[in-house]
Structure prediction request, 298 residues.
Amino acid sequence: MYTVSSLKAELNERGWRLTPQRETILQIFQNLPKGQHLSAEDLHILLQEEGEAISLSTIYRNLKLMSRMGILRELELAEGHKHYEINQPSPYHHHHLICVRCNKTIEFKNDSILKMGAKTAQKEGYHLLDCQLTIHAICPSCQRSLLPV
Amino acid sequence: MYTVSSLKAELNERGWRLTPQRETILQIFQNLPKGQHLSAEDLHILLQEEGEAISLSTIYRNLKLMSRMGILRELELAEGHKHYEINQPSPYHHHHLICVRCNKTIEFKNDSILKMGAKTAQKEGYHLLDCQLTIHAICPSCQRSLLPV
DNA sequence: TACTTATTGAGAATAATCATTAAGAAGCCG
DNA sequence: CGGCTTCTTAATGATTATTCTCAATAAGTA
Prediction:
């Protein structure tokens, strides 16, 4: 599991710094119930409720930074705003199937996708950070509702 | 001088449309006293005062669009926000010298800069939209004030 | 302990989303 | 031919999301 000290090491390696805010954000995501993900706004409110308020600027900055570092995954579940979740290694690595009508989201696993992503990145000399298959579709329940597309 | 009908022609050529809002924005810039330039917010307020209110979204969208079309020039006079002015052809084409302390701005001309820009763009097969030399400096008056840098 | 400079927070500037409106193209007809 | 109606889809406005700027702070290093 990704620890605060490995975060610090990775940051320092690039001349960046471990701040209390970054530590807090990492911990929030690590303690999040499985399958949950947060938007910037969600995280902002959650932190306020816990009395650990962090400014929205800092939240946006660090969500982006930690995604680029491969610590978080940036999910495009619904249109209009992004969600984030912790990026876990192989046995927990998963993908998303989203109903574009009701936004119901299902996580599923498929090792061959990750393998293919890893292989492709390697072949091109890229350093893999994350590899996610996102499927937008219409769930059975919404299909039955017969609403027009 | 750039006319409404040439704007319409250029827009339509790309499958875009001439709207009353775009026409209004063009006219505002054409009637602006020489050497004046507006920020998005300036333009928004100016239009409200004239009773021709256009939404901020539309203003931002069109300032960017018209800059990319080469109709307006996007100026970075002071940090933090952009200013726009009409983009005029050769005899009126000019550059800017800005005091980074007091923001006093001087326009100056230099045909060889435009020629060089045109030549460079052409050599690379680029289509020239605008070519501006922006000089940030400290004006004599601010130098005399002896404030620390 | 001092020093450099990345980071934060607050606020302003800019971009993106989505439902609604309307520009321009195409087809009709007198 | 021109005016009128229909149709497609770009553009608008309102709102929300995100980025940027700057002065003040503090992490890591010497």
In short: Residues 1-88 of chain B form a domain with the Arc Repressor Mutant, subunit A fold (CATH 1.10.10.10). The radius of gyration of chain B is 17 Å.
